[in-house]
Amino acid sequence: MFEGITKSLTEAFKKFRGGKLTAENVRDGLREVRRAFIEADVNYDVVTDFIGRVEAKAVGQEVLARVNPSDQIIKIVHDELVATMGPVDPKIPQRADRPVVLMLCGLQGAGKTTTAAKLALTLQSRGRKPLLAAADLQRPGAVEQLRTLGEQIGVPVYSEATNPVDVCRNAVAEAKRTLCDAVILDTAGRLQIDDDLMAELQRIDKLVKPDECYLVVDAMIGQEAANVAKAFNDALELNACILTKLDGDARGGAAMSIKGVTGVPVKFIGVGEKVDKLEDFVPERMAGRIMGQGDLMGVVEKIASIQSQVSEEELKKQQEALTKGQFTLDMFRQQFATIAKMGMKDMLGRMPGMSEMIPEGEDPEEALKRVQGMIDSMTKKEKDDPDIIDTPRRRRIARGAGVEPHEVNQFLKQFEQVRFLMKQMASMSMWQRLKMVTG
Ligand code: GDP
Ligand code: MG
Question: Which keywords, in A-to-Z order, does the entry hold (predicted)?
Fold first, then answer.
């Protein structure tokens, strides 16, 4: 399965350090990735395209100092996966003048009926008023199944023993009458794609004109998902897919295959049989799942942060100021905030001097707010020359920041220490500094 992608990349690029990534060593490293994707039943063409794009991005890329080439490739593979599966619009459309009509289609057993209820519950939780339409008149017990689910979540279910088109049409009329703002059509499926099924769905599509058509696909069918999606998309022009049963062993290759083959994005995922088990599809999360490494985000964040470091110019200016010992509270505030914003909370904890500003157990986000509050309560004169901060000033700053005066005192002492360290660090290069921080 996908388990080994991150690992095999790490192995493949271990030997390689420094310089540029050449076509040869990139190709070698990616051979394993390709195999893992193919074995995991991702559509062959999709894998080939994907590997091609990663290769093009990786070859010739300067290997960042202090970053493992494998980490760098992992980041490229990850970003490309995200780009392949995204973007996603999690919104469900709304109309002011009439109920919006959402049609669910898919093979039998894919999870349409369950998903219809999940979707209704999602809409309800967003303050909307959905109506479910039982348009599967094929499968015995299908209407009953939807009724039971509707009762469970307190959403009305429209049904009549006529034909699917009339059920859908009359459900929309019923929704208007009862001031519902969304109708979810639960249609019939077949074990295989066949002309009868498509003809029925096309009739509904033509006569009821749903605003959105979502294909419900079982993630466990892997690469076959792409073929199913293609057939439905050719017949109905899908707006999105809903990938179900991702609580099982499926690793999400289906999301990649579907998007790669049809261009139709996955919008929601089903992660359990219960009605509240519907989640927004998040490409980043799926990429992590596909690559199979819990620590992946650590690598991705680290590199992203290095790449988004301050511009050279700004860096030079800062270094100059630092060597002269001019590390001001304003500069500190900015650095502290940048690091916290990069989402590298653990990193902040390891910054010399800064770690002491986050007491054991305090959320770095809270520490950031506290520290910023204190700095923002100081006058310009105080910030430029903290030595002038006496007891009355300390009290005023504490009041302004909503902290105790002794906390201001403590912070200023810590800042003094940081200022000293910064002066030392100023003589180091950017990479040395980063190394010191990232370890
Ligand atoms: P339909 O034939 O497409 O309407 O499929 P159903 O909604 O009847 O679902 C078929 C089976 O799949 C049922 O046993 C559901 O409980 C199950 N199912 C649907 N969605 C999920 C899911 O996200 N996770 C799991 N584990 N089971 C699901
Ligand atoms: Mg059903």
Answer: Cytoplasm, GTP-binding, Hydrolase, Nucleotide-binding, Ribonucleoprotein, RNA-binding, Signal recognition particle
